[in-house]
Amino acid sequence: MPEVSKMKKPDVKVVLLGDMNVGKTSLLHRYTERKFKDTISTVGGAFFLKQWGPYNISIWDTAGREQFHGLGSMYCRGAAAVILTYDVTNWQSLAELEERFLSLTDTANHDCIYAVVGNKADLTDPKAHLSQDLDGVSQDQTECEEDRTEPQVLSACPTPPASPASLSGMILHKQVTHEDALALYGRILRYKGLEEKSSLPAEKMCFETSAKTGYNVDTLFETLFDLVLPSILRKRNENQESPTVDLEECRVASGKRTKSTCC
Amino acid sequence: MERDNHQEGEAQGVKICDPPSESNPPETLATSLSLLGNHMFPEPVVRKDSTTVVKEEPVDLHLSAVPAQEQNLDAEPISTQIKMLETDTAENQEQECPNNESTDTVDRGTEDAAGDNDQSDSGEFVVTMLAKAKLEEQGIGVKGRSSPLLEAGTQESPAFVSHRDEDVTAESWRQHRKHVFVLSEAGKPIYSRYGSEEALSSTMGVMMALVSFVQSSDNIIRSVYSEEHTVVFLQKGPLVLVCVSSSQQSEQQLRGELLYVYYQIISMLTQASISRIFEHKKNYDLRRLLAGSEKILDGLLNLVDSDPSFLLVAIHCLPLASSLRDSLSQILQKAITPNLVFSILIAKNQLLTIVQEKTVIEDTRLEPADVHLLLNLIGASSAFQAGEIWTPICLPLFNPDCYFYAYISYLDPPECTVCLLLLSTDKEAFYAVAECKRKIEEAMVAQNSLSLIAKAQSYSVSQVGVSDLRHFMYKPFDVPDNYRQLSQFTSPEMEAPYSSEEEKMRLLDLYRYMHSRIHSTSRPLKLIYHVAERETLLAWVTSKFELYTCFSPLVTKACAITAITKLLRWIKKEEDRLFIRYPPKYSTTPNPSKSSRGGKSDQPDSTDNGFLSLL
């Protein structure tokens, strides 16, 4: 009997990174609980296990606070996907991804997938604002087109705003455009020493979401889960060959960073 | 008898003592004042009636021109004035129990307190000082007295209203019963309980100026007393903590609370890293590292105000049949992994059981304050309860410079009342520790523990069967050696007439007052019989226990004494249920039969690596 309830070994690891207050916990909460509620600043990291078909996906929701910065590389060790989250109303939150969080991913798998996610889209984008929980999934990503017509005046000035006042219904100035995110994705690949051609395209890996309305949230997680499946399968195969797993693999992973391997 | 001290202290309203002798008995005016002030405590309104004119105009002039630099203060040394004012103090029917048949240690304290009493009736000291005026200008020392009751009712109920956005110039901000500020030695604001630190930077600058000014003559500022407020300073390494309170608590108690705030900060950052940071950069903005932790500090301060565990420096554990507690302990004892050092089970924010690694137990003991910080962390971080949290945490009294790694998970989602806390010394041990939780969960399901825990609850004072007894707090000292490691206390639910928040706070304030008398550094008492307006309290400390009781107002002294005898007998009888009697231990040095289940079987020396580095 105890065998059954024994911990399901997670097959793959997904990590949420990003500055504090960008909404990492809220995104995950929206996805797992289908709800949006006030959250308290995360302490350390929180571990969740998500059933995805026959697979167990572990999700680490990390604290964005600088206080816990030292732990980041531990959470990222052996990660198959990293969700780099920023707040579309806060330029600094995008800058922080590059300055503070990108280096944490050094311990991730060599074939790790990166997604750049701009949360709080409901504050700047009327479409995301209206989007409700259910049809959030059905929203396609053509909204990128429209984003370009969004006010870009402020995006040029990289001053961090005070805390974005989330007055309901009010449309805030978008500080980070979709293009900024695409550019960041390019720089991430370069940092990782990956070829742009052989990697997943930026358009596919940059999302704008709203944990509040549910806009694009399911799309984000489900796209990622589908993308990490190959990684799961490969890992399972490797497991059959040698029973020792994690430690070995991540050592290899961190050593191989400069090698631009793609599967 | 108190006169000498007054003379000595009159030169300075600021209580100062030499740095090395911080622990000297502070026999100064300030202490005396606090005692005098406390006498009026049950009838705080009385003080308002006195027609007192305290000249502050010249004072204001000076200070409005004083920015936050100490050089300016140097030019104009702070002068202090002390005025003695006639006040009509309502007779406070306080008296010490002259003798007590059923007790052995009563005599002491009787005369002392009587003398004290006389003095309090004769007058009141008001200390004004230059800097106070600035503080007042900023609203900290403002006239309109805040009623502690009002405060408790209005400020604590809307839990989700952020105090950060408060207007610091508003009257309501000034009315707060207890302000707490944390700043760096460079005068940089780090934390304010109410209002944003930024808006308060000039106030904090003045605070720092006071600290530095006194420091420049090789002294340490400890407190400032004004008519309605007590300002207490605590310097800890590169941090300065300031409390501005109108709560009538003793300086000692307020300093203890500031120490908790300091420890909470240490628990998040460690002392070593704080000193390192400030050595490196004196004007570092520590808010960068504490950002997001304000709620933890807010939560701590609310707990400090509402939970007597902090006052008593003891743990309140949930009453539980000893057989059930033992079985829970055994479950924890069996689910171990290398480097695991503490396994703690908590229900309804109270301790169920705690199991420690053997080596840890031998070397050091877990201090109640560390447990309080852990409980506060859990309370403040439970937003997203479905997950398993893994976070570094430092136990400042255990070792202020090192981190433990805490695994926090609720065992009964979605109710989330039973929480498991596992502390490891290994940063990477998450999966191994999570596996321990799996085992614990399994065993608890098998034994149906969760539903048994759900039935456990705090007890009613009526179970004691003593009429007139409304409430009590009992903290034993006489614990046998093998469970010396954790001070505990027991206390029934607060029931009518103390069921409303206001009344609860009022009772706690009475207890705090009794506690401050018992633990007064200048004149500690052993027994106080205190007839207050709406209840009668009796506090008694012996070599074996510390006891605070609250009776209905009409109780007689003789009645109260028999009641206490009965109460003590009842506690003795219930001891096994009320306290964690024999906290079990485990050894995470691998044991062949267990380590194979732990997953990491090939680490014979992991225990040593683990905490030798810690100790």
TrEMBL record, chain A:
Transmembrane segments: none annotated. Pfam families: Ras (PF00071). InterPro entries: P-loop_NTPase, Rab20, Small_GTP-bd, Small_GTPase. It is found in: Cytoplasmic vesicle membrane; Cytoplasmic vesicle, Phagosome membrane; Golgi apparatus. It is a lipid-anchor. It catalyses: GTP + H2O = GDP + phosphate + H(+). Keywords: Cytoplasmic vesicle, Golgi apparatus, GTP-binding, Hydrolase, Lipoprotein, Magnesium, Membrane, Metal-binding, Nucleotide-binding, Prenylation, Protein transport, Transport. Belongs to the small GTPase superfamily. Rab family. One of its GO terms (cellular component) is phagocytic vesicle membrane. One of its GO terms (biological process) is protein transport. The keyword Protein transport applies. Its EC number is 3.6.5.2. Its cofactor is Mg(2+). This is Ras-related protein Rab-20. The gene is rab20. PANTHER family: DRAB5-RELATED (PTHR24073). GO terms for molecular function: G protein activity; GTP binding; metal ion binding.
UniProtKB/TrEMBL annotation, chain B:
Residues 178-300 form the FUZ/MON1/HPS1 first Longin domain. It comes from the Eukaryota. Residues 469-575 form the FUZ/MON1/HPS1 third Longin domain. It holds the Pfam family Fuz_longin_3. Residues 1-30, 88-123, 583-615 are annotated as: Disordered. GO terms for biological process: protein targeting to vacuole; vesicle-mediated transport. One of its GO terms (cellular component) is Mon1-Ccz1 complex. Residues 586-615 have a biased composition (Polar residues). Transmembrane segments: none annotated. Residues 339-440 form the FUZ/MON1/HPS1 second Longin domain. Belongs to the MON1/SAND family. Plays an important role in membrane trafficking through the secretory apparatus. PANTHER family: SAND PROTEIN-RELATED, VACUOLAR FUSION PROTEIN MON1 HOMOLOG B. This is Vacuolar fusion protein MON1 homolog. It comes from Echeneis naucrates (Live sharksucker). The lineage of its organism: Eukaryota, Metazoa, Chordata, Craniata, Vertebrata.
